[in-house]
Amino acid sequence: MTDKTAKLTLPNGETLELEMYAPTLGNDVINVASLVKNGLFTYDPGFMSTASCESKITFIDGGKGVLLYRGYPIDQLAENCDFMEVCYLLLNGELPNVDEKQAFLDRINNHTMLNEQLTHFFNGFRRDAHPMAIMVGVVGALSAFYHDSLDINNESHRVKSAFRLLAKVPTIAAMCYRYTIGKPFVYPRNEMSYAENFLNQMFSMPSHDGKPDPVLVKAMDKIFTLHADHEQNCSTSTVRLAGSSGANPFACISSGIASLWGPAHGGANEACLRMLHEIGDVSRIPEYITKAKDKNDPFRLMGFGHRVYKNFDPRAKVMRDSAHEVLEATGKNNDPILKVAMELERIALEDPYFVEKKLYPNVDFYSGIILSAIGIPMNMFTVIFALARTVGWVSHWTEMIAEPTQKIGRPRQLYTGEKQRDVEDIGKR
Ligand code: SDX
Fold it and tell me: Which of 10, 137, 269, 291 qualifies as a FRET site for 261, CA 20 to 30 Å off?
């Protein structure tokens, strides 16, 4: 709260005094909740200037390219912590000590398996189904199995659902991939780390032993950390809105997965790599830069631009460094697609159109290159994003449910349709 207020003078000369709240970091906010009592709504399509909630989880300074998870800079977390520590931090507000981390891992490991009935659920999908379509369905279907953790007003149920979701999304994600390529499902191995377990379920074969490459495991773990949370982005806002009705956590996370799928959001990593392959060679980059700048062409440079970042996305910087490490480790550092990406980034960052509009590479620009080098197919990229973002969604869902003043989200509208009129008999229409 601040002692500042905002004055709003209405056309009839009346002046409204609106409360203002000061954040720890970022913009002051004006409380407009009282406007409806004066017969007024605010109007803000896309919520460009709207704070939908109060949160303590993540902060972005778009102008400076800063991303903090519970106050810790993303580059420090990516360098010094693993994804399980980041999950603990996002959910609990502090980084774990050794004992707290082990207890967290043990609890995750109690829930990595799926009810065996769910394996039959996959058989209802076509083999060529997009893995995101399967992921949305199977995660939502978890609410058909785990009835002992659906009471959102019971904290132990909320915590149990949180652990079930964190533990099972890698298992489900890997099963989505294995199903679409006709390979047998691989059970989780609890002696493995979270990222190693996931890669093992993705790529191991019953016909021969083998463990995931530690370099790729480290890269996968870092990708999970970089995608874990991002304030009130489209999919997180979807989860919060779904949760505000009292829907169970599995259904809410399924709605977040559906929302993330869009190419303007989490689907951009797949769209970006498809774009890089379509460009194919550095000689064709100018043609695509021209298309991206053409107002009459719907083409946009995938992996560029951001609603909040008007500077480098700090995740893109970490991702770019990791891309070089992974391509080196996999002997793909002459990958022509990396050359196209690097040259595209260089050209775009010098082009006045992108400079004036503050369009920089975002988290999705390099992630596809790394995921490809790890051996993950393009149609699985957004599934990986959903897997990583589950902890962010669950953290925000938990924060929202625990908010004493929490109420169902129900926006209003600017109605420009027909005034009331009477129905005519069909013979007279
Ligand atoms: C994610 O919100 C989050 O935090 C999301 C995310 C997360 O972690 O949750 O960070 C993950 O979704 C990253 C963004 C991934 N999407 C893409 O890479 C798709 C390509 N980017 C664009 O679609 C776009 O930049 C958005 C959707 C990301 C942001 O769009 P905004 O904020 O609505 O901005 P805008 O569309 O109003 O663009 C402003 C101007 C426009 O030109 P004018 O109308 O002002 O003339 O910039 C142009 C746009 O045409 N523009 C682009 C562009 N992005 C914006 N022009 C060419 N290529 C682009 N990529």
Answer: 291
pLDDT value of residue 332:
86
Distances (CA, A) of 51 to 21, 32, 68: 11, 11, 18
Hey, is 61 helix, strand or coil? strand
187 within 8 A of 209, measured Cβ to Cβ: no
Q: Which residues of the chain have pLDDT under 50?
A: none
**C-beta 144 within 6 A of ligand 1:** no
Torsion of the alpha carbons at 305, 309, 310 and 315, rounded to the nearest 10: -80
pLDDT of residue 323: 87
How is residue 100 annotated by DSSP?
H
3-state SS class at 29? strand
* Ligand 1 close to Cβ of residue 230 (< 6 A): yes
Residue nearest to atom 41 of ligand 1 (CA): 357
- What are the backbone angles phi and psi of residue 68, rounded to the nearest 5°? -120, 130
Please provide the average confidence, as pLDDT, over all residues in the chain.
95
Q: What is the pLDDT of residue 333?
A: 82
- In degrees and rounded to multiples of 5, residue 208 shows phi and psi of -155, 150
Q: Token digits for 190?
A: 């609890």
Helices (H), 181-261: 194-203, 214-226, 234-243, 249-260
Query: In this structure, what is the dihedral angle of CA atoms 201, 206, 212, 217, given to the nearest 10 degrees?
Result: 0
- Tell me which residue has tokens 């580059």: 75
Please name every residue paired with 7 in a beta bridge, in sequence order, or none if there are none.
17
User: Which residue's CA is the closest to the ligand 1 atom numbered 39?
Assistant: 357
Phi and psi torsions of 35, nearest 5°: -60, -40
Judge whether 265 counts as a catalytic residue.
yes
Contact 143, 105 (CB under 8 A): no
Nearest to 358, CA basis, from 59, 67, 63:
63
Q: Quote the pLDDT of residue 1.
A: 60
Q: Tell me: the pLDDT tens digits for 296-344?
A: 999 999 999 999 999 889 999 999 889 888 988 889 888 888 889 989 9
Q: What is the pLDDT of residue 210?
A: 85
- pLDDT reported for residue 208: 86
